[in-house]
Design brief:
About 35% of the residues are buried. The strands form 3 sheets. A 4-stranded antiparallel β-sheet has the order 1-4-5-6, covered by helices on one side. The protein has a domain at about 20-95 and about 170-320 and about 365-480: Outer membrane efflux proteins (OEP) (Up-down Bundle). Helix 4 runs antiparallel to helix 5 and helix 9 (about 360-425) runs antiparallel to helix 10. The protein is α+β, with helices and mostly antiparallel strands. About 55% of the residues lie in helices and about 10% in strands. It is elongated. It has helices at about 5-15, 60-70, 75-95, 150-220, 225-260, 265-270, 290-295, 295-315, 360-425, 430-465; strands spanning about 100-110, 115-120, 125-130, 135-145, 320-335, 345-350, 475, 495. This is Efflux transporter outer membrane subunit.
Amino acid sequence: MSRLRVLSIATAALLAGCSVGPDYRPASPAALGVPTDWSVPVAPAREDLTRWWNRFDDPVLGQLVEQSATANTDIAQAVARLRQSREALVQSRASLLPTVSGSTGYQRNENLRGGGRSFTLPDGTVVDTGGGGSNSYTLGLSASWQVGIFGELRRTVEASRAQYAASGYDYAGVLLSVESEVARNYVIARGLQAQIANARASLGLQDDNLEIAGFRVQAGLVSSLDSEQARSQRAQTAATIPSLEQQYNAAVSRLGVLTGQAPGALKPLLQAPRPIPSGPATIGAGIPAEVLRQRPDVRAAERTLAAATAQIGVAKARLYPALAITGNINTNATSITGIGDAITGGLFAGLTQAIFNGGRLRSQVRAQEAAADAALAAYKGTVLLALEDVENAVVALSTAQARQREFAIALDAANNSALLSRSQYRSGLTDFTTLSQQEATLLSARNGLAQARSDAASAQVALYVALGGGWDATTVPEAPPRTRAAGTDPAPVPVPVTPQTETR
């Protein structure tokens, strides 16, 4: 087959847009193991969870979550990775276009013999510069183009586009993780404030009990055992406060770091106690298939699978001929005005084909196929994990709400029992052991109710995040434009989603 014939066939293949390798097709929910309904009772109506923290009606919580979205260092790293991925896509697209370069030059030639001008060096030597000088001006332009007739370049761009989208969803996943961590630590901080308040309230009652016991001992109504029991109970309650304060300080410090500040920066803001935040009693979860569209980690895994599928085509294209076209134009003149008088140029097109490589290229194809299988398994695993997160959060919320109702009843009963026991002890109708037990039960009920409220709020946060709340799932995160100074990049600006069109 003649060279011209081979070139004609290759050009026809190029114009036909031939791309070897499998075309990516998204898997159906059924193929991923997604059931048609949840196995636990959930509210069927799907809600807009883009700004779920507003549902807690706590302005401090909203302020902290929104501040973390712009100042958190993990989010800043995710933005930087997204920018890197965008530039990789730009570089990949550039490979589809020719590379053009230019050159220019000037040269002066002098004839050092033959008379003309002369000058004397400092040592007395006379140098004849000659009179036959000439100028030379050159100007050149060269271009090269790797055509990729079997689609290796287009598949590379396809993979880069999918990887860029996956990086955007990875950024959204980091954003959701940081938002939930802020809310969780805020709930912990408010819950610990409630427990510290409970301990101090109980400490005040136990101070009164210690005083009453002392009076009764002095009056000879009871032995010193009552006084010692009261003193021991008070000390044990007081000992719990430093531990609670240490945990509270850790939660507040964590909130400071999550919002991009020093650990103690938020202590003045959170110093005034506020109730444990409480969201709506029910949260609409919709149907399981909606998790595939709402969860950024699921969408990132899907785009990673698309990129791995495209890489199979890149590897397969290396088994076929590669076409390269190069050309150049040059001119050479003795004066600038005559720069265009003599122009030369050339054009070359060549095919290269691997003949023997010890099976390396086919091994690369099999390796990419294995990578795609692994990406598919990871995609399925991410989907199943997302469904597990939703159902676990639903059950956690339901059980926390049930515990909250029971602890409310227990607190009412414990409070009444403590009042009766204190009155009876003052009157000498009961012993101090009974009073001590009732006081301990009251403190336990108070802390139990506070913990149940904290658990319910944490479960609500977990459910919001498990459902993919915290970002606008109708948009895809894009890398921000380059800023004037390093370290001042804003958060990515979402843009409307466009249908994913893969190169065929």
